[in-house]
Structures are given as C-alpha cells and as structure tokens.
Amino acid sequence: MRRLAILPLLLLMTLLFPLREAAADTNVARSATPSASYTSTWESVAAINDGIDPPRSNDTVNRRWGTWPQTGTQWAELTWPATQTLRSADVYFFDDGGGVRVPASWKLQYWTGSAYADVPGTYPVAADTYNTASFAQVSTTRLRVVLQSGQGSVGLLEVRAFAPDTGGGTSGWNPPASLVTPLDEVWRHVESTYPNPYGFRNYGWDQIMANRGSINYCVRWDSSATVTAAQRDQIHAALARQFKKWMDVMAGHNGWPYAEVPLKVVGWAVRDRAQLQWSDTSVDVYVNNIRENAPQCAEPCGRFFNQSGNYPNCPGGASHHYDMSLWLTAGFSGGAGGDWGQRVGSEYYMSNLNTASMHILLHEIGHSFGLDDFYDWTPTGVCCFLMKAGSATSITDFDAWMFRDWWRHLKSRYGL
Ligand SMILES: [Zn+2]
After folding, report:
1. pLDDT-derived band at 134, boundaries 50, 70, 90
2. Closest CA to 217 of 263, 277, 152, 148
3. Which stretches within 279-396 are classed as H helix?
4. Which of 138, 318, 343, 411 has a Cα at 20 to 30 A from 164?
5. 146 alpha carbon to ligand 1 midpoint, in Å?
6. Residue pLDDT, tens place only, 322-335
7. Per DSSP, which regions of 3-129 are E strands?
8. How far away, in angstroms, is 404 Cα from ligand 1 center?
C-alpha cells in the first residue's frame, strides 16, 4: 500500500513542475510609464500597459495606441522607476483593417544607460494574438517596441514584459551597488536630523497599513473657480495615477503586502457650495469650514486630527475618513507636503491633469512618506533625483530605493 501511494505523488509532481516554471515569470509592464514616438489624438498610449488583454487586433472596446496617419518607423516604450531584469516580452498588434495594420516588422530595444541597443531575437508578426519575443536576459529601465510600418500606420493594444521571479529583482533589500553608499548617507542623515523618525506614527506608511491597503483623500479647493463633475473626476484620476507611481515602487518588494493601493477621494472642501457643479452625493462636501485660511474637510474625519485611527465623530463614520488632503491653492507656486497631505497650485494641477509625471505633486507625496529635501547637501555619486528639487521630473532609481529604505526601517512596527 505504501508503494502504491508514492506513484500518484510522482505523477502529480511531474504535472505540476512545468506549470510552476511557467508561472515564475512576472509581467512587470504595468509598473512602467508608457510613451511613444507619436499617438493619434483619439488614441492613448496608456493602452499598452493597462493590463487589458485585447479581444482581437481590431479592438473597438478598449483604448488603443495607434499612429495614424504617421508611417515609417514608430515606437512605443515602457520606462520603469527601477532597473528590471527582462527575458521575454509579448506584444499585441492593433489592426483595424483600414488605416492601422500589423507592422511589416518589429524589434525590441533596451536602454543601456546611454543609448538604445537592439535585443537580438525572433519577432513574429500575427494579428489577433500575442507575439512573443524571447531573448537573453537584459537589465534595463526602458524597453522600446520599434515598429516598421507596412500597409498602413501601426499600433499596439498591449505590451507585456516578463521578469524572472528568482527571488532577486527588488523583492528584498538589494539596491544596486552604486546606490549603497548614498542610501546609507541618506538614512544616517534622517536619523541625525529628524526629531523622532522611529516614533512618529503618521507617515503615509502608517495610513495605508491602518486602512489595510488603501488611502482616502480630501480635496481642499482653495480657489474661487468653479469645478464641474468631469473636472472633479479628472482631479481624482490624476491624483490616483501619481500616487500609484510611488506604490508601484513597492509592489512585490521586501514584504510590502499590497500589489495595488486604491485611492479614494471621499470629500471636497469649498468656500461656497455653488462652486461645485454637481448634485450627486458621491463625495462628502464640506462648505466654508476654514482653517489656515483655506477650506478643509471636517476635522473629526481627518487622520491628522485623529492619529489613533478612530473617527467616532466623523458624520459618515470611519469609511468617510480622510488620511491626506490634496490642497489646491489658486496662485500658489511650488509645493508643500507632509503627513497631512500635499499642497500645490490649483492652476498647476489643472493644467497638468494628463501629464505623465506631475513632478511637484510626486515630490510632495514623497514627503508624506518621510522622504526629505536635499537643499543643502547631495549624497555621494547621485546627481539628479526627484527629491532633490529641480534636478529630476520623475521618480528615479535612487528615489525608489530611498522610498523602500523607509519601508525597510518601519516595517517591523507592523509585525512584518
Ligand atoms: Zn520638498
């Protein structure tokens, strides 16, 4: 009987092993920022890494990236905040049977740090399916899909870029060798200049952990302008997109428990209700509750005022609480950020709703998670990064590792 029992087990292992191998590659495309040589105004380059598997090459349902009427060589690219190790990629071509067709040929290029280099491989061209290119492993922050047009313009519906899940990558504390010294300097600077870095308990980290993986915002509309429902939703979407850039730095890293951190705007604060041109009740509205000479959402609902995480006097209950405020001030240039949220100019925000990296806001969100300014010193060997104001306009590898360093030092407070 014992011998018989072994046989099914061996069979099971044989069957499972190839499946486990196949599942070991992770699609890292979704944490990248997409860009392209050209995008038709009615299409969207965001389509290429939105995670939606297209139903067919002539996708009339989901957003698409297309270059009509441009022809010749066109490209779309994924840029990551941190170095990725890649060993295969899938592309799904857009082909509407008219002006946009599958390409005559395509190839991948990766960024070496100073130039684009071709990725040697075979590049199949088929409609209505993913086309897979496998290649020797490359480590890079950018992967470019270069398309040569054939019978029409070209386009893509989705790009997947796969990294081997070897337990390496950024799953643990393993910053690139060149960043070890500057990261060490930054953390020692934090310890010597922050009044209470380990005792303070209202970092963005604490807020997300208290909510079990989400974040709530109040918009402080510190302006006399009116706001339509569409603008309200765009303000929310832009904030969520920018916040996600920092959260993507953490996905899968060093015990961080959340692949996604949903962001909800639960409240709006204004001077005059008539400024808000909607009548639905999707957000709480707080009228003429003035603090710091600006409207704010009710204090009993704010995490800043209730750091225990309990909101007994919040009218809608705890689900209507807000962790941070997005404070948008007319005529304000520059920014401010802290555990209470972020403050930027309302004109800056409204004119950058669709900007890939709203860098002032990103910088201020960094402060909300503990990251410091670098007005008076620069860590060894790093010139340009988001938290050194004016030197970079997106989250760099160094910013990403400084961010992860905060998690490394705080995670034990959550039992992780
Ligand atoms: Zn700053």
Report:
1. confident
2. 263
3. 346-350, 359-368
4. 411
5. 37
6. 999 999 999 999 99
7. 25-27, 33-36, 65-66, 73-93, 105-111, 116-118
8. 18
User: CA-based Rg of the chain, rounded to a whole angstrom?
Assistant: 24
d(CA 262, CA 280): 22
| CB-CB neighbours of 311 under 10 Å | 21
The domain locations on the chain are: 25-164, 177-414
Distance CA(235)–CA(270), nearest Å, equals 15
Amino acid at 175: P
Question: What is the phi/psi pair of residue 63, to 5°?
Answer: -65, 160
DSSP 260-288: ---EEEEEEEES-GGGEE----SSEEEES
Q: ∠ at Cα 167 (161, 170), nearest 5°?
A: 65
Q: Which two tokens stand for residue 240?
A: 């969520």
- What's the 41 CA to ligand 1 centre distance in angstroms? 34
Token pair for 189: 């600077």
Taking the C-alpha atoms of residue 336 and residue 363, their distance in angstroms, rounded to an integer, is 9
Peptide bond into 103 cis (omega under 30): no
- pLDDT at position 168, please? 45
Q: What is the dihedral of CA 142, 147, 152, 155, to 10 degrees?
A: -30
For the domain with range 25-164, which CATH number is right: 3.30.590.10, 2.30.22.10, 2.60.120.260, 1.25.40.10? 2.60.120.260
The predicted pLDDT at position 169 comes to 60
Question: What distance in angstroms lies between residue 372's CA and the mean position of ligand 1's atoms?
Answer: 7
- C-alpha pair distances (Å), 318 with each of 209, 301, 311, 394: 15, 7, 5, 34
As a dihedral over the C-alpha atoms of residue 260, residue 261, residue 264, residue 269, rounded to 10 degrees, the angle is -150
CA–centroid distance, 390 to ligand 1, in Å, is 10
Distance of CA 370 from the midpoint of ligand 1 (Å):
11
**For residue range 305-357, what is the model confidence (pLDDT) as tens digits?**
999 999 999 999 999 999 999 999 999 999 999 999 999 999 999 999 999 99
Residue 365 C-alpha to ligand 1 middle, in angstroms? 9
Compute, in angstroms, the gap from residue 393 CA to the centroid of ligand 1. Answer: 13
